[in-house]
């Protein structure tokens, strides 16, 4: 048998040149990590001050729209930024380029102010892979400590249901893991039932939900279905057409002018703002009732849709989802740019598709929308400033890497190829021993295994 020999192929590039390239990569990476620390600091302040709340659903969604960051990465940036607010040592190590963003991202999953010093030691001493392994072991010990409190949690189970002054019903409680599992399975089954009902409705797709509900909203709907299913065993919950109606009584003058005197109340008597009534009336079924001077009904008109099905189909086809800048949800509600109560026609040119969140923003939070002569929509913030469809591109220096270096040098940082180099000397990592030494709750480290 011919056994091939190992051949060493000489490279034409000098070793010194390759080392120089490696040093430049390491030095620039340290500069990028230092710049990332500043980025996270800005994100934390922007998030805390609600700078994203101009119609975006969260700071992560704003980063997705304004910066072009993938939504999952944006959520992780926001999480790390918030965590570093209470972890000054880790934040400082990142700002000095001594820890990479990858290490800091892993450490912030388990870091507390009490354990920050130990975790900083881990970050500086180990490679990124070592840090990930220790973080996994650390979390296992945390779970063991959590298991010791199961008895206390069982005794703390409770459910509170009460009605607020605004008419909303609040539910607050704590369930054991087993109880919670049963409830979550039931909610999942109820959500699937609601979805199948929507898909099988004869009017599909004319009467689909106006927006894709959030998970929290779906959970609320599913819980209602569970309660109705339980009542069906012994009680009649009423005709389906009546069970799922929400009735708002609003005077015609209030619809035309939110500041006009008059009522705007739910069927049970709970007051709602006039702006809410105007929003609901944009795209709903309406019944016009005339009253005499004594408040008695003298005439009831026929039930009509404010937006007929044919126009709704055309609106969905034209707008393809919410038109609010940076949103893009596939489903929405029809919004009258000039409200029909003020004489605005129910025509495509006077309609725009908005999701529930941004429909509320336009009617109740001071945002405005106008259609330009060329057919485009223009959105304005409450202070009158234009809200562009596409954010303006940031100014990028001719040499971004050098600009980052100059910024860090101006801040007093002197970063080099060895700045972020770990103290690891090549020895095999003993995760059990590391957790035993570092974790404050590691009473039985032998249970921790890779």
Q: Can you walk me through this structure?
A:
This protein is mainly alpha-helical. Among the domains are: 15-149 and 399-447, no CATH class; 158-162 and 169-236, no CATH class. The protein is 46% helix and 10% strand. The protein contains 17 helices and 13 strands. The chain has helices at 15-48, 59-66, 71-84, 88-95, 101-107, 116-125, 128-147, 150-155, 177-200, 215-231, 240-243, 252-256, 274-282, 309-319, 356-364, 400-410, 431-438; strands spanning 158-163, 169-174, 248-250, 264-266, 285-286, 289-291, 297-300, 304-305, 333-336, 351-354, 368-371, 377-380, 386-387. The strands form 6 sheets. Strands 11-12-13 form a 3-stranded antiparallel β-sheet, with no helix packed on it. The protein has a two-stranded antiparallel ribbon with strand order 1-2. The protein has a two-stranded antiparallel sheet with strand order 3-4. The longest helix has 34 residues, at 15-48. The protein is globular and about 90 Å long. The two termini are 41 Å apart.
